[in-house]
Specification:
The chain has 399 residues and is of the alpha/beta class. It contains 13 helices and 23 strands. Strands 1-2-7-8-9-10-11 form a seven-stranded mixed beta sheet. Strands 17, 18, 19, 20, 21, 22 and 23 form a seven-stranded mixed beta sheet that branches. Strands 12-13-14-15-16 form a five-stranded mixed beta sheet. α6 packs across α10, α7 packs antiparallel against α8 and α10 packs across α11. The longest helix is centred in the C-terminal third of the chain and has 17 residues. It is elongated. The protein binds MU-OXO-diiron (FEO). The site of MU-OXO-diiron (FEO) has 9 residues, from α2.
């Protein structure tokens, strides 16, 4: 049975949610599920804004059929060719053989790479800035490469002032009936997953996101319709402000996150002592993560939030403990910048983790390394506590 909601009287949300998928992109845990949004526009001509993931095909197709009220589809606008949005192109064309695919040249190349269909007669190629009239609705296409793939374009509907934003402004999390951000407690229930989605999926491409924000900055936008997560029709400045901070790699919060890896509890003990001393020094809202037990996508999300990071790890095979090496890899891959970082290493006979972590961090821009880096020799002793005390002082002084 169809399950849709009206965005405006002429625009219908025809997406759906997957509560069963464990890993988005077979990589990122999504315990709250994920939504694949798609939209039907009814006018003199009808248009469908992207399709949806294969996991929700049946629901999606029922929704589209319902929203079209028996009419044929005139245009399928393909903003993004990642399969979580394009998997049902063939299904739509089967049901609407006269529909035209509206896309750009890069999109067409990807369609032909992913699928075998001969689309020559079906495609309307658009360029950056082109406009397509549906009647009273006008679709203006703006290319936003690398937000999140090179072919991505967003679409501004100028009559109702709606931005169809592709992956931008999306979030992990299934839609639980409440489709609009103003129906949710976004800050409490969604922000962490929106940040985790942004930082892990698009985080590498901050400069491109900044370009997109500048390009769209002059538009009068009333509603933002992303391809994942809630739709925004109130307080758009809140979300735009988050994207501006994230894409400039600026922290949202003056806050301390301690990421520890610990084989037998001794490095954890040092991290606990540091956290306790910070708390006694007046630092609030300290977050601690056992990085062996926390998926790295959550750690990256927290790194995009917090100003101060402490990395604590043992030496392992004359290198850095694997969970920490993995985190450092993602920090580099996702272009983390502008953070203040404290280090704690452990090593029973040849501690090198601290030195190696510093070498990895030297690839990141504008990182302030706090002194001293704490060295634990197997377990915390009196001299280790003195070092931890000094690191605590350095963190508080820099907050
Ligand atoms: Fe939601 Fe980049 O696909």
């Amino acid at each position: 049975m169809h399950c849709t909601r009206k965005v405006t009287p002429s625009i219908t949300w025809v997406g759906g949610s997957d509560y069963r998928l464990a890993l988005f992109e077979n990589l990122f845990p999504i315990p709250r599920g994920v939504a694949y949004n798609s939209y039907v526009i009814e006018d003199e001509k009808t248009a469908l804004m992207d399709t949806a993931d294969a996991s929700i095909t049946e629901q999606f197709l029922e929704n589209v059929t319902y929203a079209l009220h028996g009419r044929a589809l005139d245009y399928l606008v393909v903003q993004h060719m990642e399969p979580d949005h394009c998997a049902n192109i063939a299904q739509i064309l089967l049901r609407h053989p006269n529909a035209k695919i509206v896309c750009n040249q890069k999109t067409l190349t990807l369609i032909q790479q992913f699928y075998d269909a001969d689309l020559q007669e079906k495609v309307v190629l658009v360029k950056d800035g082109d406009c397509l009239s549906l009647g009273s609705h006008e679709l203006h296409f703006a290319f936003t490469p690398m937000v999140h793939w090179p072919e991505v374009m967003v679409t501004y509907e100028s009559t109702e002032k709606i931005l169809f934003s592709a992956d931008a402004f999306g979030s992990f999390g299934a839609i639980n009936g409440n489709l609009f951000a103003d129906e949710l407690h976004f800050d409490r229930d969604w922000l962490a997953d929106a940040r985790r989605y942004y930082s892990n999926i698009v985080g590498k491409y901050g400069p491109q996101v900044q370009n997109a924000l500048k390009k769209l900055g002059g538009l009068d936008i009333r509603i933002i319709c992303p391809l994942h997560g809630p739709i925004w029709r109130e307080d758009l400045g809140y979300l735009l402000g988050k994207y501006d901070l994230w894409s400039r790699y600026e922290p949202e919060d003056k806050a301390v996150c301690i990421f520890f890896a610990s084989m037998y509890g001794d490095t954890e003990n040092a991290a606990q002592i540091l956290a306790t001393k910070l708390a006694e020094g007046g630092v609030k809202d300290i977050m601690m993560y056992d990085i062996s037990r926390t998926d790295v996508s959550y750690l990256i999300g927290e790194i995009f939030r917090a100003s101060h990071i402490v990395l604590a790890a043992p030496t392992y095979n004359n290198g850095v403990y694997p969970a920490m090496a993995n985190l450092l890899h993602d920090m580099k891959a996702l272009n983390v910048q502008n953070r203040t970082i404290g280090l704690m290493e452990n090593g029973s006979w040849a501690p090198v983790a601290g030195k190696l972590i510093k070498e990895e961090l030297s690839a990141l821009k504008n990182i302030t390394l706090l002194e001293p880096a704490v060295t634990i020799r197997s377990a915390v002793k009196g001299d280790t506590v003195e070092q931890i005390e000094k690191l605590k002082d350095a963190i508080i002084a820099s907050l």
